[in-house]
Amino acid sequence: MYCHVRFSRLRETSSSIAVCTFLGIASVVLAIFTVFGNSLILHALRKCQTLHAPTKALLCSLALSDLGVAILVFPLFAVYCFAAVFNNIELFCAIRRPYAIVAFSLGSVSFLTMTAISLDRYYAFTLRLRYRQVITFKRVVFLLAACWAFGLIWPLSWLLSEKITETVVTVIIFCCIVITAISYIKITIGIRRHQRQILAQQTIPAPQQHGGNHFSIGQYKKSVNTMELIFCLLIACYLPYFTAVVVTMVIGSNSSVMLAWNITSAFVYLNSLLNPLVYCWRMREIRREVLIALPCFTS
């Protein structure tokens, strides 16, 4: 019954139908570009030998979740929108549940991976010499496997209760945002303190990592800035959606709120297309491999 109410509210006005048509077409187009972009990034990460293996695994996990959005969520969202456009209530109600479960799953994996990346950058700064000994490839892969298993399993609670699922995803995302924000704030404070020490002492010997490699504060700061940019884009894409959710909880659901819900959902999925662009822009190693591979992909 709830699905029928949502369907009728989504078709109340001609403007709603026009917006759903646009969102459906845009989803198909964006899915193509997102698949292409994240496939290039995964190929570049596989070829890149200069990145630290745990960091590469974390970026691969984020790119895989973005690729999953392109392959699964975008098409399901397009069908969801076109079902409303063509007045097919049976298809609308049939697609709504798998669409919500897949979207919640991949969204949770993205936030959990972003949190793991922020903690990786935090430990890289605080551990210094011991970083490569503590943050090993096997431990990171185990952590990512746990994130994916949790992210893929818990949204099945939607089959039991939509309210429980929405509450859990809100708690998960809130905790991830808090942990990630605290990590980057501590990193920023630590970098500034380190720079003040350099200015005070003029020259200090750079601490060495395992294997004789020097810790470059400049290179590390650039990597942190890149990850902070990706995190900020994630928040910017999700913020309109959470605003729509809060408005729904306060004033209830109507045609305008339903329309806003669908529009802000599209912004959430757009994040999966923006991430590959940030990788190519901010990470020279990945950009080089993408430029090498691009002629092969285009041909």
From TrEMBL:
<protein>
    <recommendedName>
        <fullName>G-protein coupled receptors family 1 profile domain-containing protein</fullName>
    </recommendedName>
</protein>
<feature type="transmembrane region" description="Helical">
    <location>
        <begin position="98"/>
        <end position="119"/>
    </location>
</feature>
<feature type="transmembrane region" description="Helical">
    <location>
        <begin position="229"/>
        <end position="252"/>
    </location>
</feature>
<keyword id="KW-1133">Transmembrane helix</keyword>
<feature type="transmembrane region" description="Helical">
    <location>
        <begin position="140"/>
        <end position="161"/>
    </location>
</feature>
<keyword id="KW-0812">Transmembrane</keyword>
<feature type="transmembrane region" description="Helical">
    <location>
        <begin position="16"/>
        <end position="45"/>
    </location>
</feature>
<dbReference type="GO" id="GO:0005886">
    <property type="term" value="C:plasma membrane"/>
</dbReference>
<dbReference type="GO" id="GO:0004930">
    <property type="term" value="F:G protein-coupled receptor activity"/>
</dbReference>
<feature type="domain" description="G-protein coupled receptors family 1 profile">
    <location>
        <begin position="37"/>
        <end position="279"/>
    </location>
</feature>
<feature type="transmembrane region" description="Helical">
    <location>
        <begin position="57"/>
        <end position="86"/>
    </location>
</feature>
<feature type="transmembrane region" description="Helical">
    <location>
        <begin position="167"/>
        <end position="187"/>
    </location>
</feature>
<dbReference type="InterPro" id="IPR000276">
    <property type="entry name" value="GPCR_Rhodpsn"/>
</dbReference>
<dbReference type="InterPro" id="IPR017452">
    <property type="entry name" value="GPCR_Rhodpsn_7TM"/>
</dbReference>
<keyword id="KW-0472">Membrane</keyword>
<feature type="transmembrane region" description="Helical">
    <location>
        <begin position="258"/>
        <end position="281"/>
    </location>
</feature>
<keyword id="KW-1003">Cell membrane</keyword>
<dbReference type="Pfam" id="PF00001">
    <property type="entry name" value="7tm_1"/>
</dbReference>
